[in-house]
Amino acid sequence: MENEFTNFDEIKTKIVNLSAVLSLPKGTEAFISDVHGNNDKYLNIIRSGAGNVSRKVEELFNGRLTLVNQKKLVCLIYYPEEVLQKSKQDVDPDEAEQWYMDTINRLIEVVRYVSNKYPRHIVDQALDSRFHDITKELVFEDFAAADKIAYYREMIKNLIDLNMSDIFIISMCHAVQKLAIERIHIIGDVYDRGSDPNLIIKHLSESWQNFDFEWGNHDILWMGSMAGSKLCMLNLIRISARYHNLALLKNAYDIDLTSMIKFATNRYVPLPNFEPKITSANVTDQERNIDNCVQQAATIMQFKLEGQAIKRRPEFDMDDRLLLDKLSLDKKKVTINGHDYQIENGCFQSVNPAKPYQITHSEQTVIIDLINQFTHSTKLNEHMWFMADNGSMYLKHNDNLLFHGCVPVDNDGNFLKWKIDGREYYGKNLLDYFEYILKDGMHHPTTGDCFNSDFIWFLWEGKNSPLFGKNKMATFERYFLKDEKLQQEEFNPFYKLCHNEWFADKLLKEFDINSRGHIVNGHTSISKDAPIMANKKIVLVNGLSDSIKDSDIGGYALLFDSYGMRLETLRPFINRQKVIEDMSDVVLDKQIVEHSSERKTVADTDYGQKIKRQIAKLSAQLE
């Protein structure tokens, strides 16, 4: 009987704790997209809480610290290691101890302030375990209590005297970063042209506790390559060579490109239309030539295998992409829609006019070597399953719908229907179907041509693919033709219709979301589109992309906290050193999307619903 009573007490205590959590303010969610492998740019957003850290510092120290000192504190929180080194050089040695005292005290205040909305165990997870006892005293106890002022002062002084102050400051800054954002939503394209997508995955897996991915079409290339899609792999290699990023494959994923490099440099010569896009000055002519020739080799192999896939899958409706069989016999012209166009700097020497989509024996040898490496790369498998396990084609979260790309529709807003194996797919169930195919392909990787591989590649560039959202990917035209009209890629009508509230309501209904909800969309949209559309029901976030040219805007991120939603207009990111030198904040401007008259609590969230169900189950045990 005594044990039963003890269990009842434990159940009641759990109910009390869970009920208390429901009354806490809703945590802050950050929505970003199009990371594109740029780790420094990604970290600049994450460390700043997408602008939330500077807002908290302003709220806390307005009237107590000058704007300059607020900036210094914010910059320290973003980049503690670098700023500490710089501060040591700038601070007079006689004033160093006071600087440390002031800095630590301010950071303790910030940690307290940003942790107010969290239960104790969440804050504990964000704090460095090496300083658990110290932070427990400094952060959770009454720092202003008269009887303990000397005690707290002595504790901080000992941190300084024992040369522990630097590492303590760094740990507190990292805690602020984690507590400023409760959940990160990355709405597509962790991977693309950038050199460090592996570091982004590493940061999330080791340093963050609450996040999700909504896959983008560039992510599909990497996931598909791991699943054995040769077409995904060739596109991936071509893009990596185009942006001088082949070293990533070897350094991060232990993929040896020797066979491809030897083949490409023996068969092709550098051409101006395949000149790699390189920003660094420390690139040799040999490296440039390798990038150039590998691009050519991968492009031609890609076109050949694309032709085979398009012929295998008439349901893709991509016959307009069959262009190798439209080349003239001398391969200097191509016929498109009945018109002949001059080829600029062609590299079609391996294309057999009689069988233009046939892979040569030498090409086949290279492809087999590489695809076997991709499917067997331990680190690539680890990272791609991390993306798969923590991601999806779309996410319904806290009455918001998140996805990258589009939900394919016609000009009238009717969902485009796909008929596969006698069944029609459209809208929500089309995205569900593609997610099933992708994960099934990853669970059963094969390097042979198969249904899953073809459909995974289609997600990358297929006509009106939900993750691509255009009528074609004009790779051939952009490489070989000067006609700008032919190079144009038309967006699915989805993007124009996003300006209409009725269309937003239709999308929300299709995914069974309340009409008061929002759609948060990632991807490079139609240029100059307003980021807030459809009476504030659709929000475009593209905060890390380089798509906004000739502008002093670096994109957009979205924050959703207990007070509502606000869109952050971001500064262009040049590099980490520039941010530290200028002490520049990540945010240029803010725009309210939604403001709550009553502050939202955990009870209003999906997590709150989960807690309520847990409380109900516990309460039933007391009956």
UniProtKB/TrEMBL annotation:
Its cofactor is Mn(2+). It comes from the Bacteria. Keywords: Carbohydrate metabolism, Hydrolase, Manganese. GO terms for molecular function: fructose 1,6-bisphosphate 1-phosphatase activity. GO terms for biological process: gluconeogenesis. It catalyses: beta-D-fructose 1,6-bisphosphate + H2O = beta-D-fructose 6-phosphate + phosphate. Belongs to the FBPase class 3 family. This is Fructose-1,6-bisphosphatase class 3. The gene is fbp.
